[in-house]
Design goal:
By secondary structure, this protein is of the alpha+beta class. About 20% of the residues lie in helices and about 25% in strands. It has a domain of about 60 residues: Alpha-Beta Plaits (2-Layer Sandwich). It contains 4 helices and 6 strands. The chain has a two-stranded antiparallel ribbon. Strands 2-5 form a two-stranded antiparallel sheet. A two-stranded antiparallel ribbon has the order 3-4. The longest helix has 5 residues. It is globular and about 40 Å long. The chain binds iron/sulfur cluster (SF4) (2 copies). One iron/sulfur cluster binds next to helix 4. The site of one iron/sulfur cluster has 14 residues, from helix 2.
């Protein structure tokens, strides 16, 4: 299933605050987050890995980036209650 189709299956309230944080000091540019993110929200910017600006609206909260980041450079705080995704028919 493509990401655009998957996103139609969710109700989303875009969180007001950030919930994914990247510690650039710890990041070793391994690209694991880029490979595992089902929404393609990680990218290379000026030679460094970064999360896309609109990630809050597109993140599926799967935690794969956080799990795949062996240097522990990603902090994943869940969005506040009442925001984020809820899967339809789930
Ligand atoms: S939590 Fe999942 S969807 Fe969100 S940025 Fe990480 S890998 Fe991508
Ligand atoms: S998985 Fe972690 S260490 Fe690897 S590029 Fe992504 S943020 Fe950096």
């Amino acid at each position: 299933m493509r990401t655009t189709e998957l996103i139609k299956l969710v109700n989303k309230v875009v969180p007001e605050r950030d919930f994914i944080f990247l510690d650039a000091e710890k990041c070793d540019n391994c690209h694991a987050c880029i490979f595992v993110c089902p929404s393609c929200l990680w990218e290379m910017k000026a030679g460094k890995v970064a999360i896309k600006k609109d990630y809050k609206a597109l993140c599926l909260e799967c935690g794969a980036c956080y799990q795949a980041c062996l240097p522990d450079a990603i902090r994943f705080d869940f969005p506040p209650a009442g925001s984020g995704i809820a899967v339809k028919y789930g």
